[in-house]
Amino acid sequence: xxxxxxxxxxxxxxxxxxxxxxxxxxxxxxxxxxxxxxxxxxxxxxxxxxxxxxxxxxxxxxxxxxxxxxxxxxxxxxxxxxxxxxxxxxxxxxxxxxxxxxxxxxxxxxxxxxxxxxxxxxxxxxxxxxxxxxxxxxxxxxxxxxxxxxxxxxxxxxxxxxxxxxxxxxxxxxxxxxxxxxxxxxxxxxxxxxxxxxxxxxxxxxxxxxxxxxxxxxxxxxxxxxxxxxxxxxxxxxxxxxxxxxxxxxxxxxxxxxxxxxxxxxxxxxxxxxxxxxxxxxxxxxxxxxxxxxxxxxxxxxxxxxxxxxxxxxxxxxxxxxxxxxxxxxxxxxxxxxxxxxxxxx
Length: 346
Ligand code: AMP
Ligand code: TRP
Known about the structure:
Elements: E1 6-11, H1 19-32, E2 37-42, H2 44-47, H3 54-71, E3 79-82, H4 87-97, H5 102-106, H6 109-114, H7 132-147, E4 152-154, H8 160-177, E5 185-187, H9 220-228, H10 249-260, H11 264-276, H12 281-309, H13 313-339
Parallel strand pairs: 1-2, 2-3, 4-5
Helix pairs in contact: 3-12, 4-7, 4-13, 7-8, 9-12, 10-11, 10-12
């Protein structure tokens, strides 16, 4: 049998995991565990590049760790850990920074967006504080991936540029110091994009406020209320063949959710009804709410179970960090040797 591929991915800590995070990323992470050796990271150090509150960060990191377990990341098969528990990665980040050009970093779209440099020439001269952490963000991301010598990285399209940079850094290291890092491939899987039910022209996101997102562990009543009041469309429903025509954004979103919950046949049928002009929105909403409630109640039970079982959550986080450090430490030892630096005293 060929060796299993190593998969690595990271997610920013947030206290609430939304069904957008789940259908758009985490569900895929769960599936990949069957075919690959997976390492998943809660990237708290990356989260520090935006304004944040210290106590909240620790809370959000812990919550995200628990949410990943509850969503089906299996710590017996997979390494799932919080980034700051592995200092080997930050040392590697420094080493890799010496192989990264300032030009490449300042050309990163995410850096330009987040630093405000895309906004009418806003720059530090105008009094804006642009942290070097924001600039270094993709180097740390490369260190994350390369510390585990990952083959594949499942991420959304918006991370392609960062992955390209990671490959460039790996290549430069390998050619300068001898082979150490596989060039990590981007694993573009079909991503389910979930929209806000309150405003289906926008992506479901916590930053829009509570009525715009559904939490993966949210209570039944609240989910039913949000689906019942979901914006569908205004005006008459289009009539004609389904083909590859698009329904209104609100209807498409509900159909997407229904299918993502595993009810593909129902979603297909209702889509046809929609174009035939016979779909009753209350039926679509009812089925979608039922499907979401079934999914989230299972998630909620698993979460409660984990919190009951894991009486020492912090200990669990440390244990996972140790497992991650063992892998990253091996890579770092080789990188130090190749680059000519010392290891810290034992
Ligand atoms: P964020 O919390 O926005 O950093 O997202 C974490 C992960 O969840 C990323 O891989 C996003 O692409 C994914 N994600 C977040 N919101 C959605 C959404 N509404 N639909 C699909 N995927 C999402
Ligand atoms: N930058 C990624 C995001 O915003 C998160 C991330 C950090 C990541 N390190 C990673 C993703 C390593 C993949 C691999 O979504």
